[in-house]
Every structure is written in structure tokens, then in C-alpha cells.
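Milestone M4 deliverable, item 7.
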Amino acid sequence: MTIDELIAGYHRFRSGYYEKNRERLTALAQQGQTPVAAVVGCCDSRVDPAVITDSAPGTLFVIRNVANLVPPCEGEGVWHGTSAALEFAVQELEVDHIVILGHARCGGIRALMEEAEQEGDGQRFIHNWMRIADRARQVAASSQLPLDRERRLRLCEKESIRISLENLMTFPWIAAKVRAGSLALHGWYYDLATGELQILDRTKGTYFSP
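Output delivered:
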């Protein structure tokens, strides 16, 4: 696909979708956004939270980064894009839900696993970011289950969702709302090949299909 094709797509959007939904889109522009959920998704171009959930504009507050990770709450660094977006979603927009949307065949998770095996520095920014999920890598690498390489990657992808859910609770303003019952946290896993969505049962520690 070329840039010209993207621009042509915009013109189709403007004359098609926009015109058909002009009233709703104009209301959103004038009244502001009131999304029901914040979704932390991967920046993988194949995994679009709004498409997967068939959501209309204004429904989801989407936060995308490499491997859909949430860092722990800390103030030592300077740039906190994901943390700032979460703060806005929870404190200002007052979303009712936060969903960690992981997915199969994640390039960030593959980089994490392969870099550890190769003992190289790899790409500095990705390497430093993926350290958030290092515990998931350790779980996958040390599993005693008879797993081949691809299944260990799937395990690491799912374990990283648990870590991000745990990290969410390190933010005081998230933990307080969860305890008060005004905010719910969810872990979802999407399989690109099958289109199947799995949901983490945090009590049992297993995934199930809704």
C-alpha cells in the first residue's frame, strides 16, 4: 500500500463513513469523549482494539505500545507515555474498565525471548522496554511442560498480560478505584490466526473463551 492509497482511503472515509455518522462524530467533537474502557494494546498493525471489539468512535480510549505492556508506577524516569495516558483515562475520563489486550505472534515478545537466547544487546529502546516483561520470559523459559518454541512464545505472551495487570495495581489511583469497586481490570488474549479472543480468569489463573 502506498501513501496515495492511504489518502484515497481518507477520501472514501470522508464521503462514506463520516457522512453516514456525521451526527455522532459532530457530537463527540463538541461534547468531548466519555469512553467506557481504556485498552492497553500492542502497536502491531494487525491488532486494532476497535476493530476486534467492533466499537464505535468514542467507546474506547486506546493506549498502544510495544507488546501492550504497563510499566510499574515509578518516578525516576522522564518520559512516561503509557503511565500518563492511564492517568488521564482513570483520573480525568473516569473509565469503568482497563483491558490489557495481548495477542499471539507478538514481535516484542519474540524479541524478548530471542535476545535472551542470543545474549546480545539488540535494539536498545526495545530491549529496555521489554525488560518490563522479563519475569514472563523466565516463566516461559523455565516451564517444565513439553512445549516447543512457538508454544513457549505463546506462554510468554500470556504471562506478560498478568505482569501488566499486576503493574496496574502499583498506581495508587488505580488501586484505590479497584478496591472501591469503581474500576475493573481485565486481561484479554487475541489469536491472530483464528480470530479467537480468550479472557483471563484471574482467580483460577487460566484463560477461557467468552
